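Working notes for the structural subgroup meeting. M.R. asked for a predicted model of this chain before we commit to crystallization trials. I am recording the input and output together here so anyone reviewing the notebook later can reproduce the run.

Input as submitted:
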Amino acid sequence: MIEALSYEFIQNALIAGILVSLASGIIGSLIVVNRMVFLAGGIAHTAYGGIGLAVYFGLPIFLGASIFAVIASLIISAITLKERDRMDTFIGLMWAVGMAVGVVLIDLTPGYQADFMSYLFGSILAVSHFDLWFMGGLLAIIVLIMTFWYREILAVSYDSEYASLRGINVKFFYTLILVLSALTVVVAIKVVGLILVIALLTIPVYIAEKLSTTLYMMMILSGAFSALFTLIGLWFSYEYDIASGASIILVSALTLFLFLGIKKIVLPINIFKLK
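Returned structure, recorded in token form:
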């Protein structure tokens, strides 16, 4: 693997993996504590419509997918705030429509041979410099937002009624979390693909949640675990010539099973007690 670091595409893949892992650690924590896992899955599959849009009009994939995913998150936010009991129905509908729009637009693109596997299971080795700038910019925005609005987002995430009584704009922060989730899902698609993106956003978070007592620590640990799993997965992918996205998720899943096994054997001791 050391000699492979001389290749630019490997360097880009490593940088992309770390950037997306850190973003996924932060946003994945918010997705889990807000019970938005199914929402994130719906946005991920809806984003395929944006991929089809980008292919059809010759736009950058990230741009098309981001626009589509953000619009979907805004619609989902407006609907779920008013009719939470019908949330599953609307998410399932957007999930199916987004995928259908993407498939149709790709089929209508003249002379385009669709590489569905790269969208479904990721193509981190094909990351461009534009992709890296997009990922880096998104991570910077996420960090800034969490720095300035951490207490507000914390309150909305754990008790929206209490947050509302304190004068916090719950609707704004709920929508902001969904928009950031949508953008993070889009960049994560490049690493692990549509099918596996939820695993990247939840497995490291689950482990981090069991080892931390604060949302802040949970974000840091999940980002670190996600980055570690991504780097190990890329190494396995390179050494054994297997799909990078699937390799990353398998490493994450195996670590989770190992963690659960150790947790059953050893007395559950919380390592991080800092508040």
